[in-house]
Amino acid sequence: MIVFATLGPGGTNHELVTRRYIAFHGLDDAQIKLVDDFDQAVDLVRRGEVDYIVQCAVHPDTPRTLGLNFRDIFVCDTFISPSKDLAILTRVDIDRPHTLGLIYPATSSYVDVSRWSELKPIASIPYILDALLEGRIDSGLVYLEYAARHADRLRIDEVIGSPDDAWIVYGRERTYREGVQACRSSPIAELLKRSAPQTA
């Protein structure tokens, strides 16, 4: 049985996209181990308790995950997948929000953060929701779906949508051989062929 580690808690984009990746490869028996951070995921791979890690390329821990571990934990695959739609949600009891919870710096370019006097970096979107509901922050850059679940407590200030994120799969076995490792039958290959100058 193959086990993938990715960022928890349950309900994150990391969990959603890892499930999509597993389904794409038809791995019916694969399991997901949700971790608190990617250092824990790397440790689990080294101990043989999980086989692969799935991480969003823009996650704040990505440079550390790759940079500290490239000698024995390898990039095995990359892929593109959108995630859940994002939005700025604000507590209904706050007229002028001053604090914004977000995954910093990964999502800080999605909106004009100058509207808030204080940014509160929080490790995962479900934890940002917790901070909102507990009154520790005024606004949060979170999943749009939370607005319907908590309509009596949160309002939608801005709908952001979802970028087409790049995702990285790490494992113990190196898949790179030589040259550029890319797929010549990918959609970008077709775009490049159409864009290339035609020779007579």
Write a compact overview of the structure shown.
The protein is built from six helices and ten strands; from the N terminus they run E-H-E-H-E-H-E-E-E-E-H-E-H-E-E-H. It is of the alpha/beta class.
| Spatial order of the strands forming the largest sheet | 2-1-3-10-4
Distance between the termini: 54 Å
Give the integer mean of the pLDDT values.
94
What spatial form do the alpha-carbon principal axes imply? globular
Computed Rg: 19 Å
As residue ranges, the low-confidence spans are: none
Percent range for helical residues?
25-40%
Number of domains: 2
Please describe the biggest sheet, giving its number of strands, its sense, and whether it closes into a barrel: 5 strands, mixed
Structural class: alpha/beta
What's the β-strand tally? 10
Task: Name some characteristics of this structure.
single chain; 200 residues; alpha/beta; D-Maltodextrin-Binding Protein, domain 2; five-stranded mixed sheet; 10 strands
Verbal overview:
The chain has 200 residues and is of the alpha/beta class. The protein folds into two domains: 3-83 and 163-174, D-Maltodextrin-Binding Protein, domain 2 (3-Layer(aba) Sandwich), CATH 3.40.190; 86-161, D-Maltodextrin-Binding Protein, domain 2 (3-Layer(aba) Sandwich). 26% of the residues lie in helices and 28% in strands. It has six helices and ten strands. The strands form two sheets. Strands 2-1-3-10-4 form a five-stranded mixed beta sheet, with helices on both faces. It has a five-stranded mixed beta sheet with strand order 7-6-8-5-9. Strand 1 (3-7), helix 1 (13-24) and strand 2 (31-35) form a beta-alpha-beta unit. The longest helix is centred in the first third of the chain and has 12 residues, at 13-24. The radius of gyration is 19 Å and the shape is globular. The model has no long low-confidence stretch (mean pLDDT 94).
